Amino acid sequence: MTTNPPPVVQLQGVRKSFNVGQPNETEVLHGIDLTLLRGEFCAVMGPSGSGKSTLLNLIGLLDRPTAGALSICGEDTTTFDDRALTRLRGHSIGFVFQYHHLISAFTALENVMMPLLADAGFPNATITARAAELLDNVGLTPWKDQPAARLSGGQQQRVAVARALAMNPVLLLADEPTGNLDTKSADAVFDLLRRVNQTQGTSVLFVTHNPALASRCDKIISVVDGQVVDGHAEHP
Ligand SMILES: Nc1ncnc2c1ncn2[C@@H]1O[C@H](COP(=O)(O)OP(=O)(O)OP(=O)(O)O)[C@@H](O)[C@H]1O
Ligand SMILES: [Mg+2]
């Protein structure tokens, strides 16, 4: 008998307020229910200011909900202390943002090595070899020794994807990773995320304002005014 793995992400009644207890306290997310299964590739759409990045920051354990339950791979994070959140984040979750956040003076290879070095569990030779393999997977072997500052926007974003995959996460959170790119580079980064999803089974939450890319995801959720609407929408 096989048992299904728990959802990679599960939110129940998640709320998020900023400036709690102050006169300018505002609730930005108003009770989000959301489930992302293993291997699912889900687009997150919605107007500017609707709460998409706030939602991804909660799911990425970079911030905590004000109320509600948030589980990652079946682990209820509600009672986790900061150390437990950091451990779970480091081993389970990769991030790609609109701006790549690479260290511009470091080479592509060195940037991809960073999370592996930070983990302290790997010998140096393994780290270099793994980083080189990750860069090869995103088609950047010829550029691996170039400083990040000298790469194109699309190449930088592919380095950021390689870095996000360094710890082999079950979940990749991508917050408008193609937002700053021309159409061709955006397509290349999207295709890369799709390939990672299909070959490695990585679950992906992909925030985008681009309906054409969203329509190529398994499902689309829309965040409007801090609430998920049409949570089970299929392709438009
Ligand atoms: N640290 C914070 N303190 C106070 N308010 C915040 C904070 N972060 C976000 N907000 C507010 O929360 C709301 C949602 O912001 P968020 O960045 O999640 O929107 P978004 O959907 O990602 O928008 P965009 O499409 O422009 O990236 C906005 O009104 C924003 O001003
Ligand atoms: Mg945002």
Percent range for β-strand residues: 15-25%
Q: Order of strands in the sheet with the most strands? A: 6-7-8-3-9-10
What name is given to the CATH topology? Rossmann fold
Number of helices: 7
Report the mean per-residue pLDDT as an integer.
Answer: 92
Element order: H for helix, E for strand: EEEHEEHEHHHEHEHEE
Gap between N and C termini: 37 Å
Bound molecules: adenosine-5'-triphosphate, magnesium ion
Helical amount among residues, as a percent range? 25-40%
The geometry reads as globular
User: Would you count the extended β strands for me?
Assistant: 10
Under the CATH scheme, the architecture is 3-Layer(aba) Sandwich
As residue ranges, the low-confidence spans are: 231-236
CATH homologous superfamily - what is it?
P-loop containing nucleotide triphosphate hydrolases
Protein architecture, described:
With 236 residues, the protein is α/β, with parallel strands linked by helices. The protein has a single domain (38-66, 82-233), classed as P-loop containing nucleotide triphosphate hydrolases (Rossmann fold, 3-Layer(aba) Sandwich). It is built from seven helices and ten strands. Strands 6-7-8-3-9-10 form a six-stranded mixed sheet, sandwiched between helices. The protein has a four-stranded antiparallel sheet with strand order 2-1-4-5, covered by helices on one side. A hairpin with a 2-residue loop joins strand 9 (219-224) and strand 10. Helix 3 packs across helix 4 (124-137). It is globular. The structure holds adenosine-5'-triphosphate (ATP) and magnesium ion (MG). Residues 18, 28, 46, 48-54 line the site of adenosine-5'-triphosphate.
